[in-house]
Specification:
Elements: E1 4-9, E2 14-21, E3 26-33, H1 39-43, E4 51-55, E5 59-60, E6 79-81, E7 84-85, H2 102-109, E8 112-115, H3 119-129, E9 132-137, H4 143-151, H5 162-165, E10 171-172, E11 187-192, H6 197-204, E12 209-214, H7 219-224, E13 229-232, H8 243-252, E14 258-261, H9 263-272, E15 276-292, E16 298-309, E17 318-324, E18 330-335, E19 340-343, H10 358-374
Helix pairs in contact: 8-9
Length: about 375
Amino acid sequence: MSKPALLMLDDGTCFEGQACGAAHETAGEVVFTTGMCGYQETLTDPSFHGQIITFTSAHVGNYGTSPQDNEASLPRAAGAVFHDLFNEEHTNVPHWRATESLNTLLARAGIPGISGVDTRALTLHLRKRGTRNGVISALDLNRPSLLRRAKELPAMAGRDLAIHATCKEPYTFADGTYQAPPGPRPRVAVIDYGVKRSILLNLARQNMDIQVWPATVSARQILASGAHGVLLSNGPGDPEACTYAVKTIEGLLGRLPLFGICLGHQLLGLALGARAYKLPFGHHGANHPVKDLFSGQVHITSQNHGFCLHPASLPANVCPSHQNLNDETLEGLVATDLPAFSVQFHPEAAPGPSDARGLFKRFAQLIRAHAQAEE
């Protein structure tokens, strides 16, 4: 028998459903993602740390899960909300790569969920009112109690979550799915604010040696490592709370080529002198149109962020490079006098289209050009 559960938002809006995943309560910022597939990559994206993900796709979990599709070792989201969760074991999942069901993965990872929710109504509510904190519970169905606890949750603004999503020690990335050709390769330092495995794979495909560093690494450590370039990764939380990261980036500007993605884009912008702000309901999904302001091309992009940079706050030596065609928010920047650029969207996708993967090649070319200029 399914167990009843509630999702209570901090404005008193409550949704009924059935418990799924791990058998305990959870709380966090409730957001929605518009991807039609790629639920495993979404749930294992460290950028969702501290958030409850609402899947707008009506049916989720129907092709099971596979370790090959994890963006981190296990799901990092606080919770999940579904309209209809396919809840069979992997032997009944109609996909040859499946090793277990999505529900089993959530339970094993300790991620609670709720299914049977009117996710259309929830998404419309979040679009109108903005993201809300919320609590999912199958243990406490007392609505006043849940509302009180939802109201006590901290706001996302001002929270440094990258410190919880980063690695503990530096490591060298090596993956058996890609075999690099022989010969010397540039060394890239990846500062891990919550990096996705697909970002590391795309760097490896550009024939780079990859050293991953914790978010608290100093500029001195990066420079002493012999790195030829630095990738500033994606991650969760408020960029303005990551003052240590901004300080490190300030120490690297002009010394090495820099490429920022998502949170890394925001942190690069702050280090260059821009300001950040919180979006009403964020961009989460695999179908966001973005215009390249230099070429005029439009790319369909994968996105996952709740904060953004003010275009008007960019200093004179920084140009906007990309713009979101849905709400005209800033989606990329390039420094005119420094080897540094960044994008707000995810060029590695996972899930999503591969329209923007050429940015990894651009980064590799920038590293090689900078190395030649230094000789």
